[in-house]
Give the backbone structure.
Amino acid sequence: MASRAAHPSFQWGDPDTWGAVLDGAGAAYVAYAPDLAVPGAPEVVTAFARTAVERGVQRLVLLSGRGEEEAQRAEARVREVAPATVVVRASFFMQDFDEKFLRDHVRAGVVRLPVGPVAEPFVDAEDVADVAAAALLDHRHTGATYEVSGPHLLTFPAALTSISSALDRRVDYEQVSVESYRESLSEQGVPADVVALLT
């Protein structure tokens, strides 16, 4: 496993750290941080894929985003370098509510987002991990694209109703404008590139 905390250390921004973590690997799961939708991500993951192929990695499994133009550009570029790449597309994760960017909002009792009444198939990150592991271990998945989703389509208000029931306390949803959301993130000190990604 490659990460900033692992030895040897891995940094997306430092290509000199890539080779050591790929040596001896036959397959690799690629989850670009902060997200494939960030401008410049396709170029970085393509360079990483090229390094992986040069090091003898036979199969990549790329975590991508459903409906994200930049992410799909990354998929195409990576597959030019490594045609056997398996793409796993996901959208919102269930863990966004309790482990990630919405956790503090849930704790505060109100989630404010510029999202209308669109239903999402929230997916459990552990299910994504199961799909990725299968793709890494079985050559029959070579070159496939999988769009993963949860068992139900839920709007954000519906998801928060379920969360409220589980927590036995109310968590409300408030739809805000994109501009209001952008201003709120900036006031919280969120870096400009992350604000651009989230909006």
Q: What stands out?
A: The two ends are 31 Å apart (CA to CA). The beta strands are 27-30, 59-65, 86-90, 110-113, 145-147, 172-175. The helical segments are 18-22, 41-54, 69-81, 103-108, 125-137, 156-167, 178-187, 192-198. The chain has eight helices and six strands.
